[in-house]
Amino acid sequence: MSEPRIPAEPIPTDRLDLVPLRVEHAREMAAVLSDPALHHFIGGVPHTPDGLRARYERLVAGSPEPGVSWCNWVLRPRAERCLVGTVQATITGGDSAEIAWVVGTPWQGRGFASEAARGLVGWLGRTSVRTVVAHIHPDHHASAAVAAAAGLTATDEEQDGERRWRLGLRP
């Protein structure tokens, strides 16, 4: 029997509201994520609003794999009332989560990614998740700083040219 799915819940941090992803976020997020530079380390190109809407429809529908939860949030700074990025966690078997984040170029350098990643890791710690991992390109120093701020530590493991970062939440 597979683990029950874990739904994304609102997560407040000091300056941000991590809002569970909705399809309706696609148009605004397409503009937030439109800078091709955001894809330098991860590959691909920015989605069109319609392309992002189709992607969000798939994400909101959830993973087709039993025991896998796709939890996705948009980041809304309370002081700005606009969307600035995303965080996500793919939870497998109820006890392992792979996380990722992206903040739009105009909002980078303000600590939003670190704050959101810390909030996400804190939320995961209140679920059944025991291990949090992230995969980061070895030259992506800003993303490595976000992982470290969230409590993850670089390992010697690599996958597809990216370094694996890990945090054990509990034994």
Explain how this protein is built.
This protein has helices at 26-32, 49-61, 112-125, 141-149, and strands at 11-12, 16-20, 68-77, 85-92, 96-103, 131-136, 153-159, 162-168. The chain has an 8-stranded mixed beta sheet, with helices on one face. 31% of the residues are buried. β5 (96-103), α3 and β6 (131-136) form a beta-alpha-beta unit. It contains 4 helices and 8 strands. The protein is an alpha+beta fold. It has a single domain, classed as Gcn5-related N-acetyltransferase (GNAT) (Aminopeptidase, 3-Layer(aba) Sandwich). The longest helix is centred in the C-terminal third of the chain and has 14 residues, at 112-125.
List the keywords:
alpha+beta, Aminopeptidase, 4 helices, globular, 8-stranded mixed β-sheet, 171 residues, 8 strands
List the topology elements.
Layout (H helix, E strand, L loop, with lengths): L10 E2 L3 E5 L5 H7 L16 H13 L6 E10 L7 E8 L3 E8 L8 H14 L5 E6 L4 H9 L3 E7 L2 E7 L3
Parallel strand pairs: 5-6
Antiparallel strand pairs: 1-2, 2-3, 3-4, 4-5, 6-8, 7-8
Helix pairs in contact: 1-2, 3-4
